[in-house]
Amino acid sequence: MINDLVLLHNYQEIIKQIPENVQLVAVSKMHPVEKIQQVYDLGQRVFGENKVQELLEKFPLLPGDIQWHLIGHLQTNKVKYIAEFIDTIQSVDSEKLLTEIDKQAEKYKRKIKVLLQVKIAEEETKFGLEINEAKELFTDYLNGRYPNIEITGLMGMATFTEDKNQVRKEFMYLKQIFDQLSLLKKLDTLSMGMSDDFQIAINCGANSVRIGSAIFGNRNYVR
What's the number of domains the chain is made of? Predict the structure, then answer.
């Protein structure tokens, strides 16, 4: 049984805390379509999923005007399954992946929006491009190398730590890179911040946040 009142309360509380100019990506990974539909009915249109297989299961069961964001690590061989409908791929962490997205977008005669995921955390487990790699890919993009994609911004994940100063430092670093690249071509989206640190991210300049558990509750569903 899904507790509608809890979901409603959670969503409304998050909306109150997010400025109008900041995009909310509701992270629905490992949550059932019933919950996603309820959040959609409250007015949410942008949802984020981590895994391609789970997204493919949910996509046909939910409204067609949802803007789906792929926010988890994406394997190159999985791009073809989502290229026809994905709105934004936030987790581009290699030249190989960017090339494949460009190739698959061409097949469907569309441009796919992407964010370059930059590694700002100290944790070895985090994916992401090194700063120089991100700058090189962006320069190649500006020179016309990837005609079927649109690099709209950057994404980053801070270190999982209680040290708010470290989190703030990492977010500020990504904002600095974002501003540098925007001098070459204006970028629209700086995606950083999740349920535990989105307020810090917004204060550091994020205009897109990825929030899951603070809306949907803990992920304890058996799939």
Answer: 1
